């Protein structure tokens, strides 16, 4: 037989909280760590922000290489000099 309990003045029920929380999956901190891998912290977003100017720099460098090959010809012709 359960003893008579005083009514809870705050209205908080630990049993109701435990029932609403459901089963734990073994790791009590999993819910608190989940934010690290969602939204702006996904693996792809973290990779993108690791090298912020890499995409623009790669395109600019490739454009310069094309420009150099097409328009900047070597004006110093290497002629073999006799005797050496």
TrEMBL record:
Described function: Accessory subunit of the mitochondrial membrane respiratory chain NADH dehydrogenase (Complex I), that is believed not to be involved in catalysis. Complex I functions in the transfer of electrons from NADH to the respiratory chain. The immediate electron acceptor for the enzyme is believed to be ubiquinone.
Source species of the chain: Polyplosphaeria fusca
Topology versus the membrane: Single-pass membrane protein
Entry keywords, A to Z: Electron transport, Membrane, Mitochondrion, Mitochondrion inner membrane, Respiratory chain, Transmembrane, Transmembrane helix, Transport
Record-given protein name: NADH-ubiquinone oxidoreductase B12 subunit
Listed InterPro entries: NDUFB3
Sequence similarity: Belongs to the complex I NDUFB3 subunit family.
Pfam families linked: NDUF_B12 (PF08122)
PANTHER family, A to Z: NADH DEHYDROGENASE [UBIQUINONE] 1 BETA SUBCOMPLEX SUBUNIT 3, NADH-UBIQUINONE OXIDOREDUCTASE B12 SUBUNIT
Positions of transmembrane segments: 50-67
GO BP, sorted A to Z: electron transport chain; mitochondrial respiratory chain complex I assembly
Compartments it resides in: Mitochondrion inner membrane
């Amino acid at each position: 037989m359960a003893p008579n309990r005083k009514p809870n003045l705050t209205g908080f029920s630990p049993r109701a909280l435990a029932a609403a929380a459901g089963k734990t999956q073994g790791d009590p901190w999993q819910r608190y760590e989940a934010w690290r891998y969602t939204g702006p912290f996904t693996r792809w977003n973290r990779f993108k922000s690791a090298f912020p100017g890499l995409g623009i720099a790669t395109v600019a460098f490739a454009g310069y290489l094309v420009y150099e090959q097409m328009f900047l010809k070597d004006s110093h012709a290497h002629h073999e000099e006799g005797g050496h």
